[in-house]
Specification:
The chain has 11 helices and 14 strands. It is α/β, with parallel strands linked by helices.
Length: 340
């Protein structure tokens, strides 16, 4: 098979979700499956978590629509505010929950809903310091004094910790968020409040509020600064590539450049176009080509070799984070889902 194979353990993803659900037992669980579930396949992950997750979260309206087509019937929150009437139309048609991060986001929802005779659901996003999307407290108070539409239902309010491992920063954000929650709930009545992602969930029960949003933890990894006893989470994805050829007395060079070829040399059908990083355990960076990797070992032709199993290690070797490594690892790979 010319494609790599990504073997994904859905039983481990479900067990990881159950771990976080038990940790935040009084709060609902929102499973974050944006970016195709961090490279694990959003539809399959959502299916595996149907009995565990109370809600799913994606980055884009298109991602939410794809989940609906795959049969997901639970609530789906879209993190990116709508940027056009077309996105409002599509999101409303699929029953997605929009993010409203400022008064113009709300106005866009209202205009599209009036124009096309729709109703929409949304959560308000609060900027407590990350400065990505969201109302400041001042802009929130001004917004709340305005006229609200009966076509746009506000159901929740949320924010995001920028450094959940930093107690002082986290506590400052939480205090501001809770003040904003009080303001919003005074205007709209009880709302679902959520600020904790994986790190915030691990940082303490005071962050759990009404719902926690777990992303990278579902797939067996933790944000920087957090640790759990070994075996608490299971890493769900391993990627395998096939050996194309093996040379017992290679001559010349190894890949691009003039690095001398080792005596033994094998070629794997996996390169950086498949999402492998250039320092991912393949020796000199020139040994990794777009579609092939040259290894100084003797491999059996057509045999499979694991080329990805530890996103943390690969991220550390390449000066990045495990999130990026996971999103890249399964590119051009055929996914095989297994339960054990």
């Amino acid at each position: 098979m010319q494609q790599n194979i990504a073997v994904i353990r859905t039983d481990l993803i479900r067990a990881n979700a159950e771990y976080f659900s038990s940790l935040a037992s009084r709060a609902k669980l929102c499973a974050v499956v944006k970016a195709d579930a961090y490279g694990h396949g959003a539809a399959a992950v959502a299916s595996a978590l149907r009995s565990v997750a109370d809600m799913f979260a994606v980055a884009l309206v298109d991602e939410g629509a794809q989940l609906r087509h795959a049969g997901t019937d639970k609530d789906i929150l879209v993190f990116t505010p709508p940027l056009s009437e077309e996105e409002v139309l599509r999101g409303a048609a699929y029953g997605l929950i929009f993010t409203v991060g400022d008064a113009r986001d709300y106005a866009l929802l209202c205009t599209a809903c009036r124009k096309y005779d729709l109703v929409a659901r949304c959560h308000l996003k609060i900027n407590t310091g990350m400065n990505r999307y969201g109302f400041t407290r001042g802009s929130l108070l001004r917004f709340l004094r305005g006229r609200m539409s009966d076509r746009v239902g506000v159901e929740g309010v949320y924010s995001h910790f920028c450094a959940p491992e930093n107690a002082a920063v986290r506590e400052r954000q939480l205090r501001l968020f809770l003040r904003c929650c009080s303001d919003a709930c005074t205007a709209f009545g009880p709302l679902v409040r959520h600020i904790a992602a994986t790190g915030g969930t691990l940082a303490g029960q005071e962050n759990h509020l009404d719902m926690v949003r777990v992303g990278i933890g579902l797939y067996g990894y933790l944000p920087s600064g957090f640790f759990l006893p070994q075996g608490s989470l299971g890493r769900a994805m391993r990627v395998y590539a096939q050996a194309v050829c093996s040379r017992s007395s290679a001559r010349g060079w190894a890949g691009y450049g003039t690095l001398p070829a080792p005596q033994k040399l094998s070629v794997l059908r996996a390169g950086y176009a498949d999402g492998l990083f250039r320092k991912g355990g393949f020796g000199n960076v020139n040994n990794l080509c777009m579609d092939a990797a040259l290894l100084p070992v003797s491999l059996k032709k057509y045999g499979y070799v694991c080329v990805f199993s530890d996103a943390d290690r690969i991220a550390a070797e390449n000066g990045t984070i495990s999130y990026e490594a996971l999103c890249c690892a399964g590119r051009r790979a055929e996914r095989i889902y297994v339960e054990r």
